[in-house]
Amino acid sequence: MLIIADNRIPEEAKNKLEEYGELVLLKTSGITENSISGHPDIFFCHTPNGLVIAPNLPQQYKEILRDKNISLIEGLLPVERTYPEAAKYNAVITEHFLIHRTDITDLSIINACKELVRINVKQGFSRCSLLALKENHFITSDEGIYKTLLEKGLNILLISPEGIILPDHPNGFFGGACGTNGNQLFILGKLKHYKDDEKVKSFIQSLNYEIVELYGGPLFDGGSIIFIPQ
User: Fold this and answer.
1) pLDDT tens-place string over residues 179-197
2) 205: domain CATH number?
3) pLDDT band at 230; cut points 50, 70, 90
4) Which H or E run includes 186?
5) Which of 49, 144, 168, 192 sits between 20 and 30 A of 116, alpha carbons compared?
6) Helices and strands counted in the chain (H then E)
7) How confident is the model over 84-122, as pLDDT tens digits?
8) pTM reported for the whole predicted model
9) Range(s) of the domain holding residue 136
10) Angstrom distance (rounded) from CA 190 to CA 212
11) Torsions phi, psi of 61, nearest 5?
């Protein structure tokens, strides 16, 4: 298992993730704003046809992935410094849906997800804002996404953004503090520090996920944790 995470996640979380696979810590400079410069969900998008990567992902990471024989699709447009151009690859892909602000979605993602139903939302940082779980269940702190998916008849839990750490910002996103691998949900932090902890636990456990809390502090938005089977 290859695991991609921001190089700035807490050391305890890094050590814990290394128990589950080979950890690749992402760090970039001068591409986009500092707070999201190491976020995997800014540079990668996992699709049914391969891992889409931003063309300006630093070469060293492209080489790591190619050395592991991971199927890559290079995106057409670069990640840029400011929103919304920084969010071209920040789409949510599930078994059935492509969820994103589709006017900014890189065409490589659209092409790789032709069989999926597209759901357009106003929030370009969709993957940060929305945690996709099994059986069309979702968690978000974005009211616009919540209303859109609710109208589509999907099972979605609305939670508070307060108390999620994202450097240089008042709050981070719950989706950015998480990653899923099979029936395991990995969380950067302990839910006991979060105001909606019981609501989140109940929702997650109803789907029979094992919750893996990666360190003992408050929730930390690291731009998602990406798990790539090998």
Assistant:
1) 999 999 999 999 999 999 9
2) 3.75.10
3) confident
4) strand 184-187
5) 144
6) 7, 15
7) 999 999 999 999 999 999 999 999 999 999 999 999 999
8) 0.97
9) 2-228
10) 9
11) -75, -35
